[in-house]
């Protein structure tokens, strides 16, 4: 009988250790996940992204959100230090993508015109500060 008791005690200890290790792993995974949620929340709040515009079918609100997102992306392209030709190509491609999004959402806006105006303004600002 003693041999069987020792066996069950060892199996119980082994199962207990496995449960403890798995709980520690789970704790750190949940901790990491909460940090990810915090960073997502900060990103959404910092860019003033307004999901209620999409939920309420507010065309003007959706238009404003798309223009803001587009403007931020154009600014990122201009900041990356490529040549004007490369930036123009990237912005045209971006404008095409956003034109498709606007058409899908049934919003009347021409991102190609907006991109040309925005790009010229950003180049003027860059020249002003470079001189």
How large is the share of residues in beta strands? Answer: under 5%
Q: What are the low-pLDDT stretches, counting only 5+ consecutive residues below 50?
A: none
Order of helices and strands: HHHHH
Helical percent range? over 70%
Give the overall shape.
elongated
Number of domains: 2
Q: What structural class do you assign from the helix and strand content?
A: mainly alpha
| pLDDT averaged over residues | 79
The major β-sheet equals: none
Number of helices: 5
Q: Give the N-to-C terminal Cα separation.
A: 92 Å
Count of DSSP strands: 0
Features:
2 domains, elongated, single chain, 131 residues, mainly alpha, 5 helices
Explain this structure:
This protein is mainly α. It has two domains: 1-46; 50-130, no CATH class. It is 85% helix and 0% strand. It has helices spanning 2-46, 51-55, 59-79, 84-104, 111-130. The longest helix is centred in the N-terminal third of the chain and has 45 residues, at 2-46. The termini are far apart. The mean pLDDT is 79.
């Amino acid at each position: 009988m003693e041999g069987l008791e020792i066996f069950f005690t060892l199996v119980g200890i082994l199962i207990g250790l496995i449960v403890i290790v798995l709980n520690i792993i789970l704790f750190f995974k949940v901790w990491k996940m909460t940090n990810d949620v915090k960073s997502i929340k900060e990103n959404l709040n910092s860019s003033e992204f307004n999901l209620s515009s999409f939920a309420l079918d507010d065309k003007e609100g959706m238009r404003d959100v798309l223009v803001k997102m587009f403007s931020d992306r154009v600014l990122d392209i201009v900041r990356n230090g490529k040549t004007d030709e490369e930036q123009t190509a990237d912005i045209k491609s971006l404008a095409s993508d956003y034109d498709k999004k606007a058409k899908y959402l049934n919003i009347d806006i021409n991102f190609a015109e907006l991109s040309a105006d925005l790009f010229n303004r950003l180049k003027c600002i860059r020249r002003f500060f470079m001189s």
